[in-house]
Amino acid sequence: MTENRRIALVSGGNRGIGLEIARQLAEKGITTIVGSRDEEQGRAAAEALPDNVVVRQLDVADEKSVDRLATSIEEEFGRLDILVNNAGIANDRGQRGVDADLDRVREALEANLFGAWRLCEAFIPLMQRHRYGRIVNISSGMGALNDMGGGSPGYRVSKAGLNVLTRILASELRGSGILVNSVCPGWVRTDMGGSGATRSVEEGADTPVWAATLPNNGPTGGFFRDRRPIPW
Ligand code: NAP
């Protein structure tokens, strides 16, 4: 199947790295659905993107919103080939594990882990129907166990959990045509990364887009930065 028949969904596609991932996928000829909590904001952001971008309301923390979108994508397109779980929050900078507000930790898990998980559950059946899928979980080096430090406990736990989800799904889906990988975009200049970050959104989106367009013999169950494996 040529890329211009493929359908992609990018959660949190209305700004930051997600918006740039959507642009790069659309420029490859892939029909790209920008998921945006606020549909109007999504439309405004997508105005500068190619014509093969469509915007749909999506709050990954809201099961009804996810179910609504899954139904409408199935009716409208009949398939979903690429799912980029990009939506995320960093809501507990400055917080410490020793005295963390667990409600904030829960909020991070809801968006960053359960949000991605919900989308996977909603769309994997559609991918299985066509025996093709690319799931890209936008993780972070802050979720890597090998050099885990303190601070931002909710964010760290949510990204470490997302990496576990990548491994579980990749294992369960091996041989199905669906490849599942985690990627770290690096430290990127966005609202989340701040203006002092070292990378542009174009650089940050490069590895996610690479993972979203892997060939059939591409890797699954990996964790990548700059298109290269990194330690979990
Ligand atoms: P950003 O500029 O803060 O954008 C976050 C995006 O996620 C926004 O579109 C936001 O939507 C959306 N979002 C948050 N909660 C959502 C929800 N419940 N449902 C749907 N959308 C939701 O962040 P970014 O820097 O582009 O980060 C994108 C991803 O990369 C995140 O997963 C982040 O953890 C990861 N990451 C970023 C960096 C970095 O340096 N920037 C480094 C490592 C990993 P609204 O506009 O509605 O708020």
Write a structural description.
The chain has 232 residues and is α/β, with parallel strands linked by helices. It is 41% helix and 16% strand. It contains 6 helices and 8 strands; from the N terminus they run E-H-E-H-E-H-E-H-E-H-E-H-E-E. It has an 8-stranded mixed β-sheet, with helices on both faces. Helix 2 links the parallel strand 2 and strand 3. Helix 3 packs parallel to helix 4. The radius of gyration is 16 Å and the shape is globular. The N and C termini lie far apart (33 Å). The relative contact order is 0.15. The mean pLDDT is 97. Bound molecules: NADP nicotinamide-adenine-dinucleotide phosphate. The site of NADP nicotinamide-adenine-dinucleotide phosphate has 30 residues, from helix 1 and helix 4.
